[in-house]
Recover the amino acids of this structure.
DNA sequence: GGAAATTTTGAAAATGAATTTCATTTTCCT
DNA sequence: AGGAAAATGAAATTCATTTTCAAAATTTCC
């Protein structure tokens, strides 16, 4: 049986923490208890998670760690290339662990909010081609597909609103406050 | 010479204003001087423009029209399907006129900020295929290519920062406040 | 035309995520 | 240990967006 090479993104948590420490030293930054706790939790949790999410998780065991530090540590991870920021349609900044060579795009379920990742070389090539034909040199792209996952079905709930008559006005369309 | 059919998105401003009036009547809403001015300016300007932009343009001639009304009128245009909201990487909400059948994606220049549109049937099909293979039913997607346009070149300015020594620390990396 | 009903308007306030400030604490180096 | 630099956390700030509310405008109905 041939040895299967680990996918690029699968390096262990301790290796990533090592990389972070290297980064810190290189920039004259300091290792702290808080950073260690936050980074560990972040890498362990994985996924696409907000600073707030991580903060809440950590708060349970460590009431002394503030949101600001979580926020700053996530930014630090981005600078050190161990995480990326993602902003999907809900306009919240999410973070996900990242390995150097890793690239993928996302499918987002409008029903349950689940996020599925995909990679498609053909699409990447097509993007490059399109850009080239418009005289652009791309350095990044954003590709997100929104819809309903298998479990959530076709999303037929919440059909189009109908206009009302004068005496029977349409329900006031209140915006759910979801920033 | 064969008569060239107008592209779908090219219907005239007055036709669009007609559609809006129909929409207003249908929902028991009212026509106002402000709405007319705002919609006219918006349709005339076109492009990918923020509420603030439109407001500033209009203010010059009509100091009595408030930002709130511009904001609400643009939302109204979205509801009536005469405009769409777009949020690119700078996290500002932009509006663009839209015709029913119209769909396109965007190339955004990181140098000059120019926005180029493109349409690519192959990409649309590929997106559907990818979603299907993950069991998703897509209802929308976001596809943006970021890079440098022909005029702005390869974007070689602002290379990666180098770490500094202890006594010669790296310049404090202040975030430009570009929300 | 004119009153009543309903919607619209604009200023100001509220919202909320993201970011900065600042006084204090911690880490790192010798 | 001692001193310099960085990190921390609470609070304040920022800033686009959205809501509130009292006054004004539009539409409907007589
Ligand atoms: Mn991901
Ligand atoms: Mn466009
Ligand atoms: Zn789902
Ligand atoms: Zn450019």
């Amino acid at each position: 049986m041939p040895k299967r090479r680990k996918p690029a993104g699968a390096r262990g948590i301790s290796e990533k923490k090592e990389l972070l420490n290297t980064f810190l030293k290189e920039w004259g930054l300091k290792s702290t208890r808080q950073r260690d706790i936050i980074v560990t939790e972040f890498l362990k949790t994985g996924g696409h998670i907000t600073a707030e999410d991580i903060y809440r998780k950590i708060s349970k065991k460590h009431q002394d760690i503030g949101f600001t530090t979580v926020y700053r540590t996530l930014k630090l991870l981005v600078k050190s290339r161990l995480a990326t920021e993602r902003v999907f349609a809900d306009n919240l900044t999410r973070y996900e662990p990242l390995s150097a060579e890793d690239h993928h795009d996302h499918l987002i379920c409008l029903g349950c909010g689940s996020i599925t990742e995909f990679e498609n070389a053909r699409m990447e090539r097509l993007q490059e081609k399109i850009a080239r034909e418009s005289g652009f040199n791309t350095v990044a792209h954003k590709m997100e597909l929104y819809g309903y996952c298998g479990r959530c079905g076709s999303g037929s709930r919440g059909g189009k609103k109908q206009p009302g008559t004068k005496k029977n006005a349409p329900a006031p369309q209140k915006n759910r406050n979801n920033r």
About this structure: Chain B touches chain A through 45 residues (CB under 8 Å). The longest strand of chain B covers residues 137-148.
